[in-house]
Design brief:
heterodimer, A: 54 residues, mainly beta, 3-stranded antiparallel sheet, 0% helix, B: 376 residues, alpha/beta, FAD/NAD(P)-binding domain, 3 domains, 5-stranded parallel sheet, 5-stranded antiparallel sheet, 27 strands
Chain lengths: 54, 376
């Protein structure tokens, strides 16, 4: 399980936790998130996220 | 080879550098900034008090790491005095810098409304302002916010969540009146009131006088508000002076076309300082789109910026809001589409196409679907 961070606002997506409030189940891999998904905090595109080490 | 010089290390400057480096690793880039150059996300400044975040912890990447990762020459804590366009030179506190192309990403200043009295009014426009406000808030219990627009309401929500008693003063009739239709703006009243925010609409502060450890604000209707801290959030004014002094075309912002090019073809502008074909768009998404287009142009492939529908997210967790703003002169009407724990409204033009929307509360998360349904 990996963690991704929005380069714009620092929002963290943790694959293990998912984002139940946005309808993304825990355990959802980054690759399986739709391409048109946007950062829930600042609205930028999925492509503006980078993988971060934990 | 002379470098591309980027002025400014905010979201606009750094996003441009990042996008340009995705296309080209070799073009020399120099980044000149009057602050430290540490990369942080400005939108988090109005969302960080409740999380008790120190200013330093908001830094996502230190300036020297940005410079190493993105391969640019950093000139931090450097002021630019003048642009000499004929010679393609900048006159700075660090000496003369030559440029091949110049990108102005210098942001905007908080508007200060004239006040009588002691007027010790704070505003938060960058990370050092945030640090200053945090320090001032140490012993404070009450905060008066002048301005009930997007930033004023975000601060109101954040400070109320952090335990401060907040009074919001605004000459308009309801929250975020510049972006939201009335029925949507009014949705914020009760949720923020429940957190301890009192609203003072239809009024302006005229005097701010020291009173004890805090201040008394005299409002235009003769009423008064007492507060330990006075915060101003009445809007931003693009920084145009440097460009104006250099003889570049300016209006409200630095005038640029859809290629982000100013009246000088070696100088470009984006972000809060720019006015793109007559529009200032001081939000995150327009900056991202503008940076991508400009990066292409600077990498040698002429590109115009095309803006898709770009919803603006208002970070008021007590009652979240997303809005696709409608130009002030647009013909059409706002219509209520659904009402529950919040409201869903659309703005329809005379051809009955949706060209804007306001989503609050439970509907706020529909912004991507709603944007996809909009005609542009």
């Amino acid at each position: 399980m990996k963690v991704w961070q929005c380069v714009v606002c620092g929002f963290i997506y943790n694959e293990a936790e998912g984002l139940p409030s946005e309808g993304i189940a825990p355990g959802t891999a980054w690759a399986d998130i739709p391409a048109d998904w946007a950062c829930p905090d600042c609205g930028v595109a999925k492509s503006d996220f980078e993988m971060v080490e934990i | 080879m002379k470098p591309i010089v980027v002025l400014g290390s905010g979201l606009a400057g750094y996003t441009l550098v990042r996008e340009l480096r995705k296309l080209n690793r070799d073009i020399p880039i120099t980044l000149v900034t009057r602050d430290s150059g540490d990369y942080y996300s400005k939108p988090t400044l109005s969302n960080a008090f409740a999380q008790k975040k120190e200013a330093a912890s908001l830094v996502l990447t230190a300036a020297k790491d940005m410079a190493a990762q993105q391969k640019f020459t950093l000139l931090a804590n450097t002021e630019v005095h003048a642009i000499h366009r004929e010679a393609r030179q900048l006159e700075t506190t660090a000496g003369v810098i030559e440029y091949e192309k110049l990108v102005l990403a210098i942001g905007a200043d908080p508007i200060r409304i004239p006040l009588q009295g002691d007027a010790a009014v704070l505003s938060v426009n960058d990370l050092s302002d945030y640090a200053h406000l945090r320090e001032k808030l140490g012993n404070a219990k009450t905060v008066a916010i002048m301005g009930g627009g997007l930033i004023g309401c975000e601060f109101a929500n954040d400070l109320a969540l952090a335990g401060y008693k907040v009074a919001v003063i605004d000459p308009g009739p309801y929250p975020i009146a510049g972006l939201l239709p009335e029925q949507a703006g009014r949705q914020l009243l009760e949720p923020l009131n429940n957190l301890g925010v009192s609203w003072h609409f239809g009024k302006t502060a005229q005097r701010v006088d020291a009173a004890g450890a805090g201040y008394t604000l005299a409002l235009s209707d003769q009423s008064t508000v007492s507060a330990d801290i006075v915060l101003s959030a009445v809007g931003l004014r693009p920084r145009i002076q440097l460009a104006k002094n250099a003889g570049l075309a300016v209006n409200r912002g630095i005038a640029v076309d859809e290629q982000l090019q100013s009246s000088d073809d070696a100088i470009f502008a984006l972000g809060d300082c720019a006015e793109i074909n007559g529009r200032t768009l001081p939000y995150v998404l327009p900056i991202m789109h503008a940076a991508r287009a400009l990066a292409k142009t600077l990498a040698g492939e002429d590109a115009s910026v095309i803006f898709p529908p770009m919803p603006v997210v208002v970070k008021t967790p007590a009652h979240p809001i997303a809005v696709l703003p409608v130009p002030r002169d647009a013909a059409g009407t706002w219509t209520v589409l659904a009402e529950g724990q919040g409201i869903r409204m659309g703005f329809f033009n005379p051809q009955n196409e949706m060209i804007g929307f306001a989503l609050t509360g439970e509907y706020a998360k529909e912004r991507s679907e709603m944007a996809a349904r909009c005609a542009v």
